[in-house]
Specification:
The protein contains nine helices and seven strands. By secondary structure, it is of the alpha/beta class. The chain has one domain: Rossmann fold. It has a five-stranded parallel sheet, sandwiched between helices. The chain has a two-stranded antiparallel sheet with strand order 3-4. Helix 3 packs parallel to helix 4 and helix 5 packs antiparallel against helix 7. The model has no long low-confidence stretch (mean pLDDT 92).
Length: 177
């Protein structure tokens, strides 16, 4: 009964990997962004966010959760069997974000709760608004964060996996099959 948390900067491929795990293993998947981003991009209140994550995990024996929300990490990580860091280069992240965002903007793709990407967000110089700037700002933080999680004695039971390419991803998926 795997309980998998997937982390990585925006555009690294967290949700793509989580979807693959969900499809391959048939286990429930929670994309934390889908809870956090309520209609009109309104953030879910922190306690409701925690309650919904807690309920999702309590109702299932196995799951995959993707996202980087410190406000719920203390709920998720101790319950994990596996923690996966999708560690790809910043150039790959920016390429993936650029192509994904262009596609979503052109197609007017609904993301979560009626929200769509907005061009003005991409043009913003505020990392809190621009997913590209957010990725640039946060990409460098993940090595230290991952090492801290690996070294946390309370998470000694968690298998920590760092994947940086498609081959490593495929090997990891095979190991769970």
């Amino acid at each position: 009964m795997p309980r998998i948390k997937i982390i990585g900067c925006s555009g690294s491929g967290k949700s793509t990997l989580a979807r693959a795990v969900h499809q391959r293993l048939g286990i429930p998947w929670l994309e934390l962004d889908s809870l956090q981003h309520q209609p009109n991009w309104t953030p879910l209140e922190p306690e409701r966010f925690r309650d919904q994550v807690r309920a999702f995990m309590a109702e299932r024996q196995d799951w995959v959760i993707d996202g980087n929300y410190p406000g719920v990490s203390d709920l998720i990580e101790p319950q994990c069997t596996d923690l996966v860091w999708v560690d790809v280069s910043l150039m790959k992240v920016l390429w993936q974000l650029g192509t994904r965002s262009a596609s979503r903007l052109l197609r007017r793709t609904e993301l979560w709760n009626g929200n769509r990407e907005r061009l003005r967000s991409h043009l913003s110089l505020d990392p809190e608004e621009s997913v590209l700037l957010w990725a640039i700002t946060t990409h460098r933080d993940f090595p230290q964060r991952f090492e801290a999680l690996k070294g946390d004695p309370e998470l000694a039971h968690v298998r920590c996996n760092r994947i940086g390419n498609d081959k490593a991803r495929d090997r990891l998926l095979e190991s769970w099959a």
